[in-house]
Amino acid sequence: MTLQSIQYKDGVLTLLDQTKLPHDIQYVDCTDYEAVAVAIEDMIVRGAPAIGITAAYGVVIGALQYNGDKDFIIYMQNVITRLSNTRPTAINLLWALDRMSQVITEDVNQSIVALEKLAQHIYEEDKSINDRIGKHTLPLIKPNSTFITHCNPGSLATSALGTATAGFYLAHAQNIQFKVFSDETRPRFQGALTAFELSQAGIDVTTITDSTAATVLQQQGVTAVIVGCDRVALNGDVVNKIGTLPLAIAAKFYNVPFYVAAPTPTFDLMVSSVDAIPIEARNAREVTHIYDNKVAADVAVYNPAFDITPNSLITGLITEHGIIDAHEQAIAKLFEEVKA
Ligand code: MRU
């Protein structure tokens, strides 16, 4: 059983506080949409799919808070704007908010019912996406294979099995022996979350520093690298947690396949290349301090939260509909088929 990062019941959104993991398992209850927005900003909840799901419930909570003192539609637009301004890079946030905004009408009660239903649907749909990505990943996980993953594309970042980790959970359930190296992922250590959740599930996982990944690729007979993503452009370039690009470059050098688990809600067909995607700049303290311990001098810090991996470094995008090439033609074809 994996820990659930998001739970909703009767107007209360309960989030597992990921800033406290793996030391403490603590939950935060949100009963107003501002608290939901702050939870996303402060990375109490994190990971592209989880951010989208949380924002969807934030809209529900915003609607429940409505006290009739202004026009409902304008009020809800403000709720959605506040939630959409929390984190800029993962497209799942805007994808979920856009879907939610489409069921809001002048009728407050009807809107609340429709919003609750849709948020629940987005949550359930994510579970099914996780499962299906896992099934498409499973054939890559042969007995005695070895993988590297980066950041946390796991159950904590989604509603269920994760994206890049889903195949690991399914393979483990089938008693397939394999090994995962998990980059620690400076500066926020999301890789420690991956090591935590995989080890809780009994999967053979080894934590490495980000700078050890190339050495593992050189020496450990790695079968493939599998990472998640925060946005995929129409041309197949991928935005994911900082550190993904050097991992992809090193994988290419050592001829190791590099896969990106990419749910369709994470594609942004409106941007033809990643140059148009806002990359979140996070604060210097994340780099100068490890938790509360100062580890760097007071010098300038450059701390982009994500990097861009060009499609030429990507072996395949593992979507819930199958593995496709990271190229515009394949992506456009997939979305045409899904629409039909
Ligand atoms: O800054 P974070 O922790 O929200 O970034 C998360 C990542 O980059 C994940 O790899 C990505 O969202 C995939 S989650 C299935």
TrEMBL record:
Site positions (Transition state stabilizer): 151
Spell out the Pfam families in the cross-references: IF-2B
Could you list this entry's UniProt keywords, alphabetically sorted. Amino-acid biosynthesis, Isomerase, Methionine biosynthesis
Q: Which pathway does UniProt place it in?
A: Amino-acid biosynthesis; L-methionine biosynthesis via salvage pathway; L-methionine from S-methyl-5-thio-alpha-D-ribose 1-phosphate: step 1/6
UniProt: substrate binding residues: 46-48, 87, 190, 240-241
Known catalytic reactions: 5-(methylsulfanyl)-alpha-D-ribose 1-phosphate = 5-(methylsulfanyl)-D-ribulose 1-phosphate
**GO MF term (any one):** S-methyl-5-thioribose-1-phosphate isomerase activity
> Per its UniProt record, what SUPFAM superfamilies does this chain match?
NagB/RpiA/CoA transferase-like (SSF100950)
Q: What is its EC number?
A: 5.3.1.23
Q: What role does it play?
A: Catalyzes the interconversion of methylthioribose-1-phosphate (MTR-1-P) into methylthioribulose-1-phosphate (MTRu-1-P).
Q: What is this protein called?
A: Methylthioribose-1-phosphate isomerase
Gene source species: Macrococcus epidermidis
